[in-house]
Design brief:
- By secondary structure, this protein is of the alpha+beta class.
- It has 3 domains: 20-194; 315-409, Beta Barrel (Thrombin, subunit H); 413-500, no CATH class.
- The protein contains 13 helices and 17 strands.
- The strands form 4 sheets. It has a 6-stranded antiparallel barrel with strand order 6-7-8-11-10-9. A 6-stranded antiparallel beta barrel has the order 12-13-14-17-16-15.
- Helix 2 (26-34) runs parallel beside helix 4 (64-90) and helix 6 packs antiparallel against helix 7 (164-179).
- The longest helix is centred in the N-terminal third of the chain and has 31 residues, at 96-126.
- The chain starts with a helix and ends with a helix.
- It comes from Thiobacillus sedimenti.
- This is DUF2357 domain-containing protein.
Length: 501
Amino acid sequence: MSDFFEMLTTITRRRKAESGSPFASVKATEKWLKNLHADSEYDAHHALVEGLERFNAENEAASVERMKSLMKLEEAGLAMQARIVDQYVRNQAAFRLARQALWRESWLFWSMLAEAWLGMLKQAYRNPQSGALKPFAAELGARALRYAGLVMRWDYHQARSPAASTWRRVHKVYRLMEREGGATRDVRIGGQSTQCAREYTLIVLLGLIHPLGYRPQEIEAIAQILEGYEPLPLPVTVPQRGVHTHVVDLSLSEGASMLEHDWVQGRRLRYFALGPLVDYLKALDERTPEVGNGLTRQVASLIERGGIRRSRQRTHRFGRVWVAAGMGNILNALAHPESAKGRPLLEPWMLRDESTEGMGFSLSETAALPHGRLVAVTWDPAESVWQLLAIRWDREEDGQHLVGTQRLSRHPKRVDIYFETDVPGVTREPTSAVFLPMTHTEQGVSNLLLPKTHYQLGAPLMLRDGDVAYRLRLGEVQETHEGWLRVGMDVIGREQFAAAA
């Protein structure tokens, strides 16, 4: 009788093993992959994605053996994924339905891997029984960051902004790796050497560029250029003036931004020195214009200006506005508002969307709009209510030319400037300038737009606005706009113009 029960027990165990997880061991995983037959590589890839989905749904306790099984799935999937992605990128000009299916298949693969590695990393620190995984923290963290970044990248393909929860997750993983001392430890993924800090930096850089609306070929080209840049700047905790250019706050649900006046060291602030990368991208555009018709220069401009902070809500707002483009036209529009409506210097642009920081436009014809060019916008020239904006990006989409701008001031004002005394290197000739007041709610600093011929750091300058004269001291240059400088300033004194003259 005992032999009978032993036989039943053996049969039960065998059936349980057969109906159990195909990823219970490395050998079982290898066997599953070997038997992964399909009529096409797309079908094999789809079956692998379903296998990763099953792996995540099993909710098995993390272990070194299970980690090795996941690495086997990853290794087999990356080779197929590379060919699927290549086909997806090449199919953009045609096969609309095919490219959508390929995008979804690729996105699912990255998503399943991101979920699997993040879950394993969490268990390594939350589950006492998974303590054996802690020596592999750098491998787990780097993979969790890489695949989270690829999911974000594939969202950009569909013009989708990363969710705030995604940024929080990425920041938390990187903070954990820093705390555990594994942020800069070398690991190998897909046969290439990398580290957590590098993967995190690549996520931050693509977030700065925020390539919504770029074509998939352009997004992938940008990503490959960034990945191939060897001296990639990694995040540091101590800022240095003249070295670091951007900052990310790990406590916020967003990416990096331009480092302007905030040179404060914080426990959750990380700094990046992106100046050399910007110079490299500009030089690359000059050396190899065939790379992307000015694409790398556009990317450099977006990074240099701190990216386009689109984390704030944009409102779809359609309608015609009147635009004065270029400083000459802007000065004329601000000086003669009563007669500006019929002037040819004003162009009708179609507004597409608007946020607290800027506006987006849709133009029927391609125009020469270099990044940084200034435009003044009004709904009705007769009302003399203008906003001053700077062009930050432009791209072609569905036969339309889309333009994105950043608001510099809601109430620009034309003023007169001159020097009372001789200042070496600048002219004493009076000229016109534009004062850019910023409101308290915009949390900005008032600037002055003036010609290069009238600028010298620290020079005393007179500004006349109606019957009032202001004594200024010129500050640092904030940005160059086609021969004009946007500079900071300190107000030293104020007098009625009659008394000052």
